[in-house]
Structure formats: structure tokens, C-alpha cells
Write a structure and sequence with these properties.
Layout lengths: L2 H5 L31 E12 L2 E3 L15 E11 L4 E8 L3 E5 L12 E16 L4 E18 L5 E21 L4 E8 L2 E11 L5 E9 L2 E11 L2 E10 L5 E2 L2 H6 L6 E2 L4 E11 L4 E10 L15 E12 L2 E12 L2 E5 L2 E7 L2 E13 L1
Antiparallel strand pairs: 1-3, 1-22, 2-21, 3-4, 4-6, 5-6, 6-7, 7-8, 8-9, 8-10, 9-12, 10-11, 12-13, 13-16, 14-15, 16-17, 17-18, 18-19, 19-22, 20-21
């Protein structure tokens, strides 16, 4: 067994991404920082969710139709050593996102409602290795967000939020024993504050402008891997994100709804993953992993009617000389949820929904 070949199995599950708790998408991984030598990677994921609900009888009992759009997820990273103890990485990801579009002509109370939330982040990290197998890492993250939404059943409401840029930080510690492919890394991602210039309209009325404060959540990632047998690796992770503090409440929307938020979440989210990787030969490794997010209950937003999930991922990596190509597929069983509107709680039931994610990542060491 060579550590180089077996350790890559821990990356197999990250080849494809899918929406997780809140509007989490990338998981804010910094694992490229632990690659050997000089290394670059590029990843592309394609996610196809299928999410629909049925209104209660008092609202006509209509089905919403599929209200989640397909989306692509991009990522890239570059890592290099400065000396035997100090290294750095620059990582690009799309940490948060939402693509909601209720079809029209269904009779469903939220038909025509839509939402789009887009984010991009560049993270610069430094890592210092001590002589006792411990290391520390940290750096800055520059992130942008922009958003639009339409909620026709609230007086023909529509809102546009201009792109804004915020800065946060990353800090963490890791412990490694390369001879058994052991690594445990704990990473904190700070929240990032934004002041978004916002334009709101109701029906054909004039646009009202204001500033909406948005804070993307702080989070903690715990990633681990260890060899458990010849050419076999156990890997997994736990991610906590403080979605209970995430809130989008434009001034006009709050005034029209008695102080309601356009998007908010009641609970923080823990995401768990566990998998096994196996090196088959000098060129091929495979893995299988499972993921889990607890359903918290209560009512979900009409613009995000999900609650928890379970997933299964299968992946393979092909290594040739200095290049490795990772491909993966993930099936996500989306947790059931209920929505509400004034006068109806619940207003709709979302059940038996799912998503499929496909991904590919190309890494090159030089």
C-alpha cells in the first residue's frame, strides 16, 4: 500500500455536490491544502433535483409541479509548498445557492414564485506543519452574493438584490500520521456580512429601494480519514452550519407580511458523511459513502421546502502518472417538509422528493 494512492479515496465523495441544509452547496472544503507538492484541480458537478408538493384541500389540493431547477457547480484549487513546513492554497467555490421556479398553470397557490441565490468565493490559505504531526491552517475568504425572488401570492411581490462582496476568515488545525493514511482536520469558517442594495416592487407599482443585511452562516468542518486494512481507507466528515442565524428580510416584504422573513431557518444543520475507499490497482480506486442530515420538523419556507436528507454516493478515480480523474454519482433522498401561508398551516406537503448529482474532478500534481 502506498499512502499516495490510498489517500485519494477520501476525495471520491467530493466529486459531485448537491444542495444540503439551508442553501449549502459546496461544503467549503479545504482538502486541496493537504495534497503533496504542487497541485491543481478543477471540478464540475451537475445536480438534478425533483421537488414537488401538494396543497391542502382548503387551497385546492393542487400539485406544485417540480419547483427546483437543475444547476451546475464549479470548483477549482491550486496548492504549492513554500518550504518543508509552510504551504499555501487558493480555492474557488460556490458555497451557497438556490434555484427555485414554481411552474405556472398548475393552480397551486405559489405558482410563478421563483428565487435565485448565487455566491462565489475565493479563499487564500496558509498551512504550517510542526514536527509532531500537527499543523495549523488559516486565511481569508472573499465572497460575493446576489439574489432575486418573486412571490406573486404576496401582492405580486418581486425583489432584486445587487451583488455585494464581503470578507471572512478561516482557521483550523490538523493531525496526520502518513504511514497509516491518518488525517483529522478541524476547520472553522466565519460568517460573512453583506449590505445588499435592494429594489422591491408590488404588482405594477414603483420600485422601492433599500439596503438588506444578509449574513452567510459560520460553520465548522471536521474531516477524517484512516487506513483500516491493506489498500482500504475509512473516511468521513461532520459539518455544522449556523443556519438559524440566516435571514433575508427586505423592508417592503416585512411591511407587507407583518414582519415575516422572505427566507429564514429555525435550526442549525449538522451534515454527516461516512465512506470506505478501496485501491484496486495502480490506476483505479473506488469508494462508496453515505450522508445524513436530520429532519428538524416545523414549517419550511415556500422557497425552500425541504427538511433533512439521506444520500448514497459511488465514485471512482483513475490515476495515470501525475493526473487523477475522479468521477462520482450521488443519489439524495430529500426529507419531507410542510409549508405555510397566513391562514393555512400547513399549506402544502412536500413528500417523496429526490435529487441526482453527477460530478467529475481533474487533479494534476507537478
Amino acid at each position: 500500500m502506498t499512502v499516495k494512492h490510498i489517500a485519494i479515496a477520501a476525495l471520491l465523495g467530493s466529486a459531485c455536490t448537491a444542495q444540503a441544509g439551508g442553501i449549502d452547496r459546496s461544503g467549503q472544503s479545504i482538502l486541496a491544502l493537504f495534497e503533496s507538492g504542487r497541485y491543481a484541480e478543477f471540478s464540475l458537478g451537475a445536480v438534478s433535483p425533483d421537488t414537488s408538493g401538494t396543497a391542502v384541500a382548503g387551497l385546492g389540493g393542487f400539485n406544485s409541479g417540480d419547483m427546483t431547477s437543475n444547476f451546475l457547480q464549479l470548483g477549482a484549487a491550486y496548492k504549492a509548498d513554500i518550504n518543508s513546513q509552510l504551504s499555501y492554497a487558493i480555492i474557488y467555490d460556490q458555497p451557497f445557492g438556490a434555484d427555485v421556479d414554481y411552474p405556472t398553470g398548475t393552480g397551486y397557490y405559489a405558482q410563478g414564485a421563483s428565487a435565485d441565490f448565487e455566491s462565489h468565493a475565493i479563499t487564500g490559505l496558509l498551512r504550517y506543519k510542526f514536527a509532531n504531526n500537527f499543523s495549523v491552517h488559516g486565511g481569508l475568504r472573499v465572497q460575493s452574493i446576489e439574489a432575486t425572488a418573486a412571490v406573486p401570492f404576496v401582492g405580486g411581490y418581486a425583489v432584486t438584490g445587487d451583488r455585494d462582496i464581503g470578507v471572512g476568515y478561516v482557521a483550523g488545525v490538523a493531525y496526520e500520521r502518513p504511514e497509516i493514511a491518518l488525517r483529522v482536520a478541524l476547520t472553522y469558517n466565519s460568517s460573512i456580512d453583506f449590505d445588499v442594495d435592494t429594489a422591491e416592487t408590488f404588482g405594477l407599482g414603483p420600485a422601492a429601494t433599500s439596503t438588506t443585511q444578509i449574513e452567510t452562516p459560520q460553520s465548522v468542518n471536521l474531516d477524517f480519514q484512516t487506513g483500516i486494512a491493506q489498500d482500504t481507507l475509512l473516511f468521513g466528515g461532520i459539518r455544522w452550519a449556523e443556519w438559524s442565524e440566516f435571514d433575508i428580510t427586505p423592508v417592503g416584504y416585512a411591511g407587507a407580511t407583518g414582519g415575516s422573513s422572505l427566507v429564514s431557518y429555525d435550526d442549525d444543520v449538522f451534515t454527516y458523511s461516512l465512506g470506505v475507499g478501496r485501491r484496486l490497482n495502480d490506476n483505479w480506486s473506488v469508494s462508496a459513502s453515505v450522508g445524513y442530515e436530520k429532519s428538524n420538523g416545523g414549517f419550511a419556507s415556500n422557497l425552500g421546502p425541504t427538511d433533512g436528507n439521506k444520500s448514497l454516493a459511488l465514485a471512482a478515480v483513475y490515476t495515470q502518472d501525475n493526473m487523477k480523474i475522479t468521477t462520482g454519482i450521488r443519489y439524495i433522498n430529500i426529507g419531507d417538509a410542510q409549508t405555510q401561508i397566513p391562514g393555512f398551516a400547513p399549506a402544502a406537503n412536500f413528500e417523496d422528493n429526490h435529487a441526482v448529482a453527477l460530478g467529475v474532478k481533474v487533479g494534476y500534481s507537478f
